[in-house]
Every structure is written in C-alpha cells, then in structure tokens.
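Data availability (excerpt). The following record was deposited with the supplementary files.
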Amino acid sequence: MDQEKRNQRSIDPATLVMLEHAEKEGLETAWDRHDKQDPQCGFGLLGVCCRNCNMGPCRIDPFGGEPQRGVCGAGADTIVARNLLRAIAAGAAAHSDHGRDIVEALLHAATGEAPDYRIKDRDKLLVLAAELAIEVAGRSDEEIAADVASAALDEFGMSKGTLAFLNRAPEARRNVWSKFGLTPRGIDREIVEVMHRTHIGVDNDYVNLILHGLRTALSDGWGGSMWATELSDVLFGTPQPVEGVSNLGVLKEDQVNIIVHGHEPTLSEMIVEAARDPELLELARAQGAQGISISGMCCTGNELLMRHGVPVAGNFLQQELAIITGAVEAMIVDVQCIMPSLTGLADCYHTEIISTSPKAKFPGAKHVPFEEKSALKIAKEIVRMAVENYPNRNPDRVFIPREKMEFVAGFSVEAILSALGGSLDPLLEAIKEGAIKGIVGIVGCNNPKITHDYGHIALTEELIKNDVLVVETGCTAIASAKRGLLLPEAAAKAGPGLRSVCEALKIPPVLHMGSCVDISRILVVAAAVANALGVDISDLPLAGAAPEWMSEKAVSIGTYVIGSGIYTVLGTVPPVLGSENVAALLTAGANDVIGAAFAVEGDPLKAASLIMEHINGKRSKLGLP
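Predicted structure:
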C-alpha cells in the first residue's frame, strides 16, 4: 500500500506507524477488512432490507422499481423504521445492562456479598437517597446503599410509573414527553416492546414506530446509563480532574503490559488493585520484568483514567494495533466494542486474550468467569496469568511507537461545579455575555469509513476556535487526549472568549466527562442550565455530534439526545435513506414534536458551520448577543 493511501486511514501518528508495521508483518486490521467489504450492500446501507420473518429476506428497490413491498406487504417506511427501532433497542439494552450490573454490584457490596467493593463517595450516596426519598437518619451507609440499589433495580422491570431521574429534566421537557407519549415507563419494558412492535404483523406505522424509539432511547439516557454513571461514582468515587497519558506509547518495553478493554468498571477496578499486590509485583520481577503496567482501551480506559490516572493505550480502532506491538502480555475483556479479530491476532504473538463475562465469549480466548463476590481473588488470578506470560514475549518482535500525550480528564458534573466555585452562575454569565457561545457534546466511536480521529479532531478544533465549550466522552475524548486538546494549554487554540474563561478557571477548552455511558453527565448539566434559566433544554445554545459513530449504542445515544431537545449532527449516514418519510421525520419533522432533530454531515468543518448556525439561532431567540 502506498503511503498516501495509508495516511488516509488515520491522523494519529502512532496509528499510522503501527499500520505500516502491521502491513510489513502481513497482519490484517479493521481497515483492511473494511476495504474487502467494498462494495457494501446498497440495500443495507439504505435500510431497506428486512429479515424479521422467514418469508424473506425482503428488500425494496430504492430506485422506484419492483419490489416496492416485502412479502408481508411492508413498504420502505415500515422496514426502515423497524430496523432503526431494533438498533435503538440493542444500543439501549447494551448501556442499560451495563447499568444493571453496576446496580447489582452496589447491592452486593451493601449486603456484604461482595466484600472487595466499598462505598467511596458517601456524599453522592446521600444525595441520591434524598432524591429517591430514602430515609438516612440513624442508618449505616450499607443500609442506605442497599435501598438505593433496590430502588434502581425496580426501574428496570418497573410497575410504579416512570423513571426517577426524569425529574431532573426541566418541566417543559417533561411536558413534551408526556404530550407525545414519550415518557419511559421502565427500562426493560421499552426494549421488550420494541421487539414486540417490530415482529411481523404488529406496528407498521413509521411515525408510531419512531416515537416509541424515542421513548426507548430516553429510558437509556435518563435511566440505565444514568444509573450506571451515578452508582459507579458511589462505588468507585466521583471523578475529579486527574492527569493522564494517552496513546500506544504508554506501553512499557521492560514491564508486564496488561490492557483492560471493554466497559464495566467492576472488573477493571479490581485489576488495578490486583496489579499493586506486592506478591505479584515480586513475581513480575522474578520473571525478568521491572513491574506491572496497566493501561486501558476504549471506555474501560476512560473509567480508569478518570479515577486513577491509569494510562489509555487508545480508542476503538487501536485495539488490534496494541496487540501488534508484540508487547502486550494480556488483554482482559468484558463486554462491548471488542473485535472478534483479537484472538486471531493474538495467535501471531504471545498475547493472551482473557474474557471474563458470561455474556461475551471469544473463540480462542481463555475464559476466566468474573464474579463480584470473589472479585479481587479472580483479578489476582488474571494478573498472575499475564505476569507468567512475560517470558514468552519475543523481544525481537516488540515494536512500540513513541507517541504519547499528557492530558487532564475527570470532569464530572461535581468537578465542573467545583471549578466554577460551586455554582453554575459563572458558566451562565459567560454564555449570556458571549464569551462562551454555546456548549457542544461530541461523542461516539471510530469508524474506518472516516479517517481515524479526523472527524473528532477537526470538528472539536473548529468549534473551540468559535468560542464553543466542548464536552466529550468515549472514543472522542481519547482522540482529543492524543491531540493535546485536553490540556489547559490548548486554550491557545480557542477563540478569545473561551480562551479567557479557560485561563481564568485553569481548565482545557475541551472537557473529558467520561465513558460513553457518562453522556448522562452531559444531560444533567444541560438540564441544570435549563432549570437555572427557566427554559427547556431545546431553547439552549447546545448541540451534540457523533462524527465517527458506528455502534447501535450510538444510535440509542443520538436518539435520546434529540429526545432531550438537543440538535445532533452525525458524521456517518444511518441506514434510513431508503425511506424519504423516515429521513424527513428524523431530520426535520422531529423539530415540531420534540424541538430537536438530526443532521447528517460527513465533512466536520461543514458540520461545525451547521452547529454554529444552530447555536447562533438559539442565542438570538434567547435575546443573547
């Protein structure tokens, strides 16, 4: 492959170095497999293929020829809407099941069944208890935590009415949800109803289907994901600004390298603790290593760096490249965003892929079932496996790129309030005066359809240049970390207004708010600002963006963001263009229902222009300069 084509794959220098190395080694990566898929299925790209019963699969001719209906009579509008709804359900299920696992971990910790976990943020526990009207006087933290966890579990298969955290949203927003039947009744209930509605012979009204999709996504954003974030803070500590290092250069030539990859902090927190065990550190030295180095990948990386400053090796498209360095003794995985290709690559090296969740097994991986009840014991067993694998490393095949970058992460809602002196007033004044024009949440994955990290970075840099404060989670935040945008010094790249605010508060112009479930933190900030101004979220100069999204979780996220009243720009086209009606509803008609809609723009600079036009329009309506 020539260098020009390789350079089109990523803007990250470490990634480009590793892609060239992978090619020399004859190893295949996600980019190679993407190229081999060309041309991708046109029916699938447009969303007009249906496999929901065995009379098919059926597809609709996108050019107006035959067939125009599936065997059952479903047309393009119904098929596209059903497919989108199922994607929302899968994404909501993924995040909300993550939330359920955190809730159960807190319950087990509170009842003594998981003795290795303890409550690290008592203040947040008491705030949640007050919000849920749980009695705290004369009770132990464990008793309170058990009641909070039980109340949270009730929200999944709920019979009481609506989700507790919906009360955080402005009254005007709750009225919109109520008016159009969008108020979630329970997390699991909405997901199950998606599957029922999209079964053959049930709902075939595309508007009705999309409305239920909004309700299902809202049960994720204001339910499952929000519980995951809140109770992770209670169990593991609420993040505060912490310094970290990112990119593949964090791997150590002279240490046992363990990468924790996936999404659930119940596992990764214990791995970090186990790696500090004196006995295991002594074993590592006995094996010839200088120590044990833990680094994160994807959202588990974000969770660890926020609370412990653990280095982040990379984002989604770098997981294969980490193995190709030849320096990783073990990659420990749980759930979500883990490529099935990893075990095949690991076979080319000494790396062990160790799976831990009963929900996610990988042929060729070693499976060590992880249970909260024996968390630290199991974590030590896993770390021991990695340490004992160190002598199998081939030093001649170790190729670690030098690139790494310092950054500051951990801007939880509480940390932002602390930086503002305990009140939102300084932020509100900066927005009113125009020093900060607006706030944009940039989130989402990597996608080999787009040059790796380019969508994230180009959009972020253009927005901060225009005095927009950017908040980020997930793979986007890791991209900005690698670029140096999560340092206070990056304020030099911001417009004069945003720069002055950042310099006064000593914060970066781009705030790292956590993993992908932590987008709920962004919702909480948006709701708080709206409540402080006495308006709906949809009235604020806010926007969302997902420049490189690829997963079903991102579909759910984007849907609950617009359902919350925030205009959202997507960088890759969702499979809805096979239905003009569905596409029009999502990009225009939704404005009349929920006060927000999607836009699709693959060019991040043009996307920035769309966002600035939207922000300036909202400022004008609020009477702001």
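Summary of structural features: The two ends are 51 Å apart (CA to CA).
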